[in-house]
Amino acid sequence: MNRKTLVPAAALGLLAPVIAACGDTESGRTDGDAIVVGTTDRFTASEEAPAPLDPAYAYGVDTWNILRQTVQTLMVQPRGEGEPVPEAAESCGFTDAGNERYSCTLRDGLTFADGDPVTAADVKYSIDRARSLKADSGVSALLNTIDTVETQGEREVVFHLRTADATFPYKLSTPVAGIVDPDDYAKDKLREGFRVDGSGPYTVDIEAKNDELVRATFTKNPDYKGALKVNNDKVVMVSFDSAEAMGEALEKDDIDVISRTMSPEQIKKLSGNAGDDIDLVELPGLEIRYLGFNTEAGPVKSKAVRQAMAQIVNRGELVSKVYGSQAEPLFSLVPASVTGHSNAFFNKYGEPSTAKARALLEQAGISTPVELTLHYTTDHYGPATKKEFEQLQKQLNDSGLFKADIKGEPWATFRPAELKGKYDVYGMGWFPDFPDADNFLAPFLDKDNFLNSPYSNAEIQKKLIPQSRRQADRLAAAGSLTAMQNTVAEDVPVLPLWQGNQYVAARGDITGTAYALNSSSTLQLWELGRGVSG
């Protein structure tokens, strides 16, 4: 039968997108016994984003799922939960009591896939390059606590931080801190196109057509030296135009694994129907969805309008009508399962109330109905996104206080437009860079934030974020984290909606799915096997 397996949080994070593309998806069976993974993501090299796979630019779970297989980092997140452990490094740690000096020693004999040695100078080059390029994706903000990087000999790298940062080891496990060869990645410009080179567990061959990635073939790197055990020789990733086509390919045994994104209907069918050759694995979720606001534009420039929307939106109804048991209402940017979470929005607004929303608008002198457009991406967060926005539109318009339209665009158009501030209201999702409350707050609220939002709060940026990062014991950071969440509920620069579980469907002979994702939602292809223990 279809065996629905619940994987506990201690074992696994959540499923993330794998590759993004479109192309020949009739069958992935073109490489012998390679494990074939399907996805519905789109991934494009465009004028606005010409270097999608450069570690100094890439900032999405889809691109990171390619980079994590190929570009090595000093640290790596372990199976299940827990602090990051050395990967390209043989050891790393703070060397002072104030968490402001961090030292790593590289493993002996590391080489890039082309045979060039990996040295401490390459690590410094890679980190300094990402910081100096400061790509508009916002990914370099993960490195903004670094002051200087120095090398001591061929194998030791020392990071001097501007301020204490207990989360720094996590940041060194993210692809922006990936080690690249100076011969392949210029210091003063991004590497355009789809070429990827590194010292990770795989090399990758990428097929592209019309500036879209069509297929990615990952081949085990025979010269890889690191902490990871690679359980397969080859993985092929294939993109599909729809969740339905991807599901049919799995049923026909044309592919082995479905990654992101299945529709709610598919998940319900797979979890309830009988069969004997497909596993459905349910994974605890750290994915969140939210509305973002350009707080300097249009009707949402008024805080009262954003607060009124927060007062009207019925998360329970939204989740039940669109996602069912696959998601749950979220009342903060920080998911309920993460240390430091606070139900800040429920504490401030309580149950949905049109009367309270009307009072907020009247007090601010706002005429109703307020006209606005909710923008969403049609091809990045799954096939249910349109239905979700239709439900949001209905809730707002049924209040009589808003006249909302909705408009969907492909991610390749949507994301650059959002970064340029062209949308007043827009829907986004977030998969954490690492599983800490800081990473659900700082990327949205700090300088050079992920959304390129004009919203700025001096207390958050100058006091609360640094204060929370000084606490190595994350429970001790609860006061600062709660204060930030309360401020977000008051000012509403973003409006959290829901957090969701994730799902993997795989043929019965595929092993390792319980460890195929780390706790920050990123795919780990090396864990997958065929008929062998992972």
UniProtKB/TrEMBL annotation:
It is found in: Cell envelope. It comes from Streptomyces composti. Coiled coil: none annotated. Belongs to the bacterial solute-binding protein 5 family. The keyword Transport applies. Its main location: other. This is Peptide-binding protein. Keywords: Signal, Transport. Pfam families: SBP_bac_5.
